Amino acid sequence: MDSPSLYKKLEKELHEKRKNMASIIESANTAYEERDKANDQIENLRQHAKRETNDFERELKDLSHAMVKSQKALEYIKMTQTQGQEFARTAEKEAEQIRKQTQKLVERRE
After folding, report:
1. pLDDT tens track of the chain, all 110 residues?
2. Start-to-end Cα distance in the chain
């Protein structure tokens, strides 16, 4: 083999290897970008889940307080019986509504 053809062959191989290396670098860069995107999405989902958890806990706390308040009011009404039967039924309905809301909230959380 003479020098010019050997040179051209080696030059062609070098060109192919550089092309292959550029392709590998491009693939690696794409993979890094996709990994970063996925990590961002994971972080966004974590933050969203944390916000939902905080909202759930706040709603559950509010409903629990409302339920306790309604139960105390109902106990007072039953104890004194000065307000009459209609007021007691209304308080029971409110307590039941709160129980249902709490149950829905708990089911939604699960």
Report:
1. 567 898 899 999 999 999 999 999 999 999 999 999 999 999 999 999 999 999 999 999 998 998 898 888 878 777 776 656 666 678 788 888 888 888 887 777 76
2. 76
Domain count, the chain: 1
Distant-in-sequence, close-in-space partners of 98: CB < 8 Å, separation ≥ 6 = 63, 66, 67, 70
Radius of gyration for the alpha carbons in the chain, expressed in angstroms and rounded: 35
